[in-house]
Design goal:
Layout: E1 13-14, E2 26-30, E3 50-51, E4 55-59, H1 62-67, H2 87-91, E5 94-95, E6 98-102, H3 116-134, E7 143-148, H4 154-167, E8 171-177, H5 180-185, E9 200-204, E10 213-220, E11 223-224, H6 227-241, H7 246-250, H8 252-256, E12 260-262, H9 266-280, E13 293-296, H10 304-310, H11 339-351, E14 356-360, E15 367-371, E16 376-377, H12 379-393, E17 398-401, H13 407-416, E18 420-423, H14 428-440, E19 445-449, E20 455-457, H15 466-482, H16 490-495, E21 504-512, H17 524-539, E22 545-547, E23 555-559, E24 562-566, E25 574-581, H18 584-598, E26 604-605, H19 607-614
Helix pairs in contact: 3-4, 3-6, 9-10, 9-15, 17-18, 18-19
Bound molecules: 6-O-phosphono-alpha-D-glucopyranose.
Residues 207, 426-428, 450, 452, 454, 569-572, 576 line the site of 6-O-phosphono-alpha-D-glucopyranose (G6P).
Length: 615
């Protein structure tokens, strides 16, 4: 079964797809949606068909529309069109500090908006942004690396974005199937044989999202680009796109002169991981000899970890699963936050009587592990484990985490490990930036980590790297072995002894209906903020509840031996509600408190919470 967020519908192709209604200011026309499932011809733009699903009714002022080039209505192998697109179309592709969109047709209600010409314009826009940033003059050719995960739209988007970059005079280096952290790493690696360091890097991925989505993450040696940079790039892309002509997109002379090279960079990245474990074990060649470690890559890009990292270190990897890239993700969503995914790796560990299981998300910036008894090291437990490892190396250091971490984790970090827990906001970029900020004002921090499985260490240039988190765990196994401590993954399990875990823990996601009249035309964010304000006011007078004295996101409240946090999702029109409590009854009391406060907001879908309190 493919991973989808909606129903898969059959593609229906039509040849007469477009009716230009010159009398109307609302027009049905062929949006520039390409049929992305066809094999790509590098360097060639081919619009072969447009599906009926891709017909859009967009509100375009008549003049703007007619001032643009002709819209060809018979989609066929020879017809290429470049319809005008509003700037808002591009800005809607922004997802926090990433670009994300629908790249593949086939899910009902999700029309393709990340097309090849849009990707080409984004490539050219990144080129212009980078040139400004690096203040490069025309004599210096900037170099950009491009990698991708296993998604079926990867190659088409890679070719399109490469054309945009190379067409702007940059040197493009293709890495093929790669991980997001490897891409950032390529801006730091000093090895001219591999054309490194690059000035900028792009990962084509939509992380753990369904198969039809895709997107871009951008890096320079200063780290991942932030929200303001992405907005800037998308605004530039809109201008560039609207200057494209069908001829400029298909000009083969221009394409032949582009500088696009291919390099096996993943071999550099993986050998760095191998070296890190060997070094930590006292320069032993095979420090994991005899350990049986199974990997589940969920058919994403992380399959390399078994053959290129674990095996050279001496580990047995038989029983590893879903290592082959398959962009339809036929086995489970590659995401350590997903229950089915965690069940799959746990089963693999138990079935194979392995010492350890390791699981990654699609682009390998999230990870989790499972010990030999099937106990999961994910969410708060993964943070506790990493905090224990890092605090052994850096006593007293501050551990920065996301906002949905448990009270038990704070007690563990502060009372058992002697560190400081700084619970910040959700979002890997937020926690990393906060850790960097703390260091800059003199508060030492060595670890920024989320319950989602994202994590970054100061020693690793604050690279958000799921594979490196696992390397730290492997180091612990290897060094315990080197110092004569046996027992496989017991050494890891022992590190989180004393972590208190709630009997009840749940996350409910309450959707905001953006079209609801209660929003009065305002944004979902504004509406969500109002819900939060109302909740905050309503709990003020309840003696059973205490607002968290320090809180950076949403409304976090303790009471009935547990806590809840209601906050706005980073990207979606959703208010995620986390509840932890010592038992179901107390969890219910917390749920009822929230429900009483939010039920009057008609634009908020509280059905998940209703269901919870009724059950
Ligand atoms: O706010 P949410 O909807 O829970 O999403 C939060 C998540 O968004 C993205 O996936 C980010 O990459 C994660 O770092 C973050 O944890």
């Amino acid at each position: 079964m493919a991973v989808t967020s909606g129903k898969i519908v059959q593609n229906v192709f039509v040849s007469h797809c477009c009716q230009q209604n010159r009398q109307s200011s609302r027009r049905d026309y062929c949006a520039p949606y390409t049929r992305n499932l066809l094999p790509s011809t590098p360097g060639k733009l081919t619009w072969t068909a447009i599906s009926s699903m891709q017909l859009r009714t967009l509100s375009i002022p008549q003049n703007d529309f007619t001032n643009r080039r002709n819209i060809l209505c018979n989609a066929s192998a020879s017809s290429t069109v470049v319809p005008f697109l509003e700037k808002t179309y591009f800005l809607r592709l922004q997802n926090g500090s990433d670009i994300r969109g629908v790249a593949v047709d086939g899910v009902e209600g999700e029309g393709v908006n990340l097309t090849e010409p849009v990707a080409e314009a984004i490539g050219a826009a990144f080129a212009a942004w980078l040139a400004d940033k690096k203040q490069a003059d025309a004599s210096r050719h900037l170099r950009v690396s491009i990698g991708h995960d296993s998604r079926i739209s990867a190659k088409l988007l890679q070719n399109a974005i490469s054309r945009g970059l190379a067409g702007a005079g940059l040197e493009v280096v293709l890495y093929g199937l790669a991980s997001t952290p490897a891409m950032f790493n390529s801006t730091l690696t000093k090895d001219e044989a591999f054309l490194c360091p690059v000035d900028g890097s792009i990962m084509i991925t939509a992380s753990h999202l369904p198969f039809n989505r895709n997107g871009f993450k951008f890096f320079t040696n200063a780290g991942g680009l932030g929200k303001a940079d992405i907005k800037d790039i998308l605004e530039r892309a809109a201008n560039i796109y609207n200057q494209f002509t069908a001829e400029s997109l298909t000009n083969s002379e221009r394409k032949d002169s582009l500088s696009i090279k291919t390099v096996d960079y993943m071999s550099v990245y993986t050998s760095d991981l191998v070296k890190a474990v060997r070094k930590a074990a006292g320069n032993i060649e095979k420090p994991l000899e005899g350990f049986h470690i199974v990997v589940d890559a969920g058919n994403g890009a992380g399959g390399f970890f078994a053959a290129k990292v674990l095996e050279p270190l001496g580990a047995i990897t038989s029983g590893s699963q879903f290592l082959e890239p398959d962009g339809l993700f036929p086995n489970h969503i590659p995401n350590p936050e997903d229950k089915t995914a965690m069940k799959a790796i746990t089963k693999a560990v138990l079935d194979n009587k392995a010492d350890l299981g390791i699981i990654f998300d699609t682009d390998v910036d999230r990870s989790a592990a499972v010990d030999s008894t099937g106990r999961e090291f994910n969410r708060n437990r993964l943070i506790a484990l990493m905090a224990a490892i890092v605090l052994e190396e850096h006593p007293g250091t501050t551990i920065v985490t996301d906002s949905v971490t448990s009270d038990g984790l704070t007690t563990f970090i502060e009372k058992k490990l002697g560190g400081k827990h700084h619970r910040f906001k959700r979002g890997y970029k937020n926690v990393i930036d906060e850790a960097v900020r703390l260091n800059s004002i003199g508060e030492e921090s060595h670890l920024a980590i989320e319950t989602s499985g994202h994590g970054a260490l100061k020693e690793n240039n604050w690279l958000d790297d799921g594979a490196y988190l696992m390397v730290k765990i492997l180091n612990k196994l290897a060094s315990a072995r080197a110092s004569g401590v046996g027992g496989g993954s017991n050494v890891l399990t022992g590190l989180i002894d004393g972590l208190q875990e709630p009997a009840f823990s749940a996350e409910l996601r309450l959707k905001i209906d953006q079209n609801h009249s209660d929003l009065k035309g305002g944004s979902f964010r504004e509406y969500g903020e109002n819900v939060l304000k109302h909740l905050e006011n309503s709990i003020g007078s309840d003696p059973n509840l205490q607002k968290a004295p320090v809180n950076y996101e949403g409304v976090r409240v303790s009471g009935y031996g547990g806590w809840f946090l209601l906050r706005l999702s980073l990207h979606d029109p959703v208010l995620p509600l986390n509840i932890e409590a010592p038992n179901n009854e107390d969890a219910l009391k917390l749920g009822l408190t929230v429900l009483a406060a939010v039920k009057e907001f008609a634009g908020l879908d509280t059905s998940a919470l209703n269901k919870f309190v009724e059950s």
